[in-house]
Amino acid sequence: MKRLCLLFLFGLCLHAVSAQVWLTEVTVNKAGTLSEVLGNRPDTIIALKVNGSINDKDAKLLREMGGFKHFDSPTSLRLLDLSDANLVAIEDDYDGQTVNVDNVVGTSMFGYSWCLMYLALPRNITRISSVAFVMCANLQALEVPEGVVSIDEAAFSYCESLREIKLPNSLRKLGSWAFNACVSLEEVDLPDAIDELEVRSFNGCAALKRVHLPSTVKKIPLMLFVGCHDLEAVDMPKTLTEIDEQAFADCYSLASLELPSSLRRIGPEAFCECHALKDIDLPEGLEKIATGAFFRCKSLKRITLPESLTSIGTRLFEGCESLSEVHLAKSISTIKEGMFRGCKSLKTFEIPSHVSTIEYQAFAFSGLESITIPAQFNTITDDAFSFCESLREVRLPETLTSIGTSAFYHCTALEEITIPANVREFGQNAFQYSGLRSISLPEGLTEISSGLFSYCEQLAQVTIPNSVKKIEGYAFGGCKRLKDISLPEGLQELGGCAFCDCESLDYIKLPENISRLNR
After folding, report:
1. Is the Cβ–Cβ distance between 446 and 423 less than 8 Å?
2. DSSP 301
3. Among 50-54, 141-145, 174-178, whose mean pLDDT is lowest?
């Protein structure tokens, strides 16, 4: 054993961190005897270089020296150089796991070494096992040596101080959760030998700014970069065919992304909450975009859906507050549920002739100011335009036969609308809380539904056709400016509170033939 006073310039530290420390260098001639070599002074060693052969019994001691039993002790091991050591197998139970393969960093071998800051791994290792370095919270930098072919599940999970890691060209497998919650990690180059990535490998790497993906990867798996808040650039492989669910979710800083022409599928919420994403060109050849793929991409201004699309999911652009320009592919016949919900900058939208259906809340809470429903429509779906508080102009086709429940609920700027002659059905609360000042209902309508015009506080004039037989409860409740109304002679049933809280209505004449009057 020898002790040297030196300026310790640790080769792994890519930020050129240096500190004057005492380096203890030892040689272990027989694996399992490190404790004997160190004697009674392991708690005083801050920097250690180990040569020779070590096994998991020795690793257990190193783990304890690194703070496993002495969290944040001022005497705990900070710097560990194993570059000239050999890991050898032992048939022994180590912390609930058995390590019996040479040149393998075993499961949890250095896990919870809270104080370990810098580490040089043995040059001849071939694999880093699951949770090998889990919760090494102060580990800042290391280089994985050439020859390592596999980094297993959660190997470096919760290494919160790890800023940089160099991966070898020999690496073929990167396990799921491998760098989970490495919140200080800034940059990663994945070697081209990796042809398949696993889920959540970089989950929660909040400081990660740039990633180079292997050139042969075909799929970005589930939640690979979820929560990488600072991610700005990703080099996409030209072989990519699929981006899976939430692959880039919560990547707040990702402003642009170049997608390859090979891409065929974008999974659910793949880019949800990418708040800085302004530009993304969807390539021709893309066939499917799943539910919520661009949910709350607040900076996205324009989007063109390619003609190759065969399937889109619901809530595709919900919460895209800056979206003002949309071009739909001719293959899209349905504006899906919640597709433009909350798109505050979407002022106008021309519904193409190839679109025949608008689903539930498709434009709810959007910034629409005007909309023209084309002739191929016969129904407006429930809540389709609810809470469109800037909507002033609505043009409905003569082919329309029904308007769904709450279709124009809380459209407070909508002061007038012409109801086509063929409309025979209104859903409940279809115009509740709207800004309508007058309304003329079409001849042939037989029923005025519950809450249809309730709380339309500006509504002063209503024309009810003779064909109406039933007015349901609270149909006109809360219409404070309604002064006069003529009920048709054929009216047979008047629902309870149909005209409740109509403060300006002094008098109403009930038809002689009314047979049911509800309270």
Report:
1. no
2. -
3. 141-145
Cβ–Cβ under 8 Å, residues 404 and 380: yes
- Distance, first Cα to last Cα, the chain: 98
3-class SS of residue 35:
helix
Distance CA 160, CA 139 (A): 8
CA–CA dist 14, 210 (Å, integer): 16
For residue 350, what are the CA distances in angstroms to 8, 47, 289, 328, 472?
68, 69, 21, 10, 35
Contacts of 87 (CB under 8 A, 6+ apart): 54, 55, 59, 102, 103, 104, 105, 122, 125
Q: Please check the confidence at residue 98 and state whether its pLDDT lies above 60.
A: no
How many residues are present in the chain? 519
- The whole-angstrom separation of Cα 441 and Cα 468 is 10
Convert 5-26 to b/e letters by CB count within 10 Å (16 or more is b). Answer: eeebebebbbeeeeeeeebbeb
Residue 59 DSSP SS3? helix
- d(CA 16, CA 7) in angstroms, rounded, equals 12
**Residue that the structure tokens 């349901």 belong to:** 472
Q: Is 289 in contact with 312 (CB distance < 8 Å)?
A: yes
> How far is the C-alpha of 156 from the C-alpha of 136, rounded, in Å?
8
For the chain, what is the mean pLDDT? 92
Beta bridge partners of 227: none
449 is written with which tokens?
């539904």
Q: Tell me which residue of 396, 400, 397, 401 sits closest to 417, measured CA to CA.
A: 396
Could you give the C-alpha distances from 440 to 137, 400, 401, 404, 422, in angstroms and in order? 70, 16, 15, 18, 13
Q: Are 469 and 445 in contact (CB under 8 A)?
A: no
- How far is Cα 10 from Cα 143, in angstroms, rounded to an integer? 11
- Dist CA 108 CA 132 (whole Å): 4
Phi, psi for 24 (deg, rounded to 5): -100, 125
Token readout for 404 is: 């769904």
The answer to whether 456 and 431 are in contact (CB under 8 A) is yes
Contact of 365 with 339, CB cutoff 8 Å: no
Label residue 5 by pLDDT band (50, 70, 90): very low
Beta-strand relationship, 18-28 and 2-9: antiparallel
Strands of 393-395's sheet in order across: 348-350, 370-372, 393-395
